[in-house]
Amino acid sequence: MVKLTIGEKIWQAAVYFILIILSLLCLLPFLYVVAVSVTPESEVLRRGIVIIPESFTFIAYKEVFISNGIGQAYKITLFRTIVGTALNVFFTVIAAYPLSKKYLPGRSPFLIFIVFTMMFSGGLIPTYLLIRSLGLLNSPWVLIIPNLISAFNLVIIKGFFEQLPAEIEESARVDGASELQSLWKIILPLSLPVLATISLFYAVGHWNSYFDAIVYINDSNLMPLQVVLRNILLNVATQSADSIANSGTVSQFAVQMAAVVVSTVPILIVYPFMQKHFTKGMLMGSIKG
């Protein structure tokens, strides 16, 4: 074990102190949101900034789940996140695997076309007309199919596949394995770090997305969670929040904070289990172009 000098110990202590302060600065806003969501209105008005409530009430959460359509929005968002992420990863892998083979005919033009889409898009109006012609308007599938493959994620996975030793697949072919068998039984088990990273990218994107639903969906029953949350935050006087505020129990602000917590906590729960794969997956998938 290397013995640190006094100067190095002081520097290390200063670094830890700065990191702790920065961590608290990042954590305090979220603690404030959680605290306000469970604090009675009278206490919020009296104390102003609340981090540790003196008393608790969960009426704001009751209002969020009962009166603002959060339950149905949760179902749509869970469907979008789970099914969408599974399809995203499947089709991205299916596209990236052949593109990682340098002997693939037309490989370079395909890659140029894919990279081109990372910098330029068709625009909102042409995309809307395309979605309408495909009959996807007011359908939950419109939240998944148009963004089935991310060019950035495809390039990351392709780079990871290119780094795997070619001898592994050659030995599999000698044993009689097909390309799909090699992909399923050999390549994918070796690619779990990058697959976990890409899966979390897709899942967080689905969970937080709202603009496509606003553009392509008119049915309120098909709106995802983030759209409903947006409506709660922008609506200054919803009927349910007014009735609560008039009772003096909880404020509309508490209802808004409860909506923020409800939409954020699921991702916060999932993220720590996937975070350890981030650095390894991204680095191993981005060394080669």
Summarize this structure as a short list of keywords or feature phrases.
289 residues, mainly alpha, MetI-like fold, 15 helices, 73% helix, 0% strand, flat, MetI-like_sf, transmembrane, transport
Helix content: over 70%
Rounded to the nearest angstrom, the radius of gyration is 24 Å
Element pattern in H and E:
HHHHHHHHHHHHHHH
Number of strands: 0
Q: Which residues sit in consecutive blocks of at least 5 with pLDDT less than 50?
A: 236-248, 285-289
Shape: flat
Query: Could you state the CATH homologous superfamily?
Result: MetI-like
The CATH architecture is Orthogonal Bundle
Largest sheet: none
Number of helices: 15
CATH-assigned fold name: MetI-like fold
Mean pLDDT: 82
Percent strand:
under 5%
Pfam families: BPD_transp_1 (PF00528)
GO cellular component, one term: plasma membrane
Membrane topology: Multi-pass membrane protein
Protein name: Protein LplC
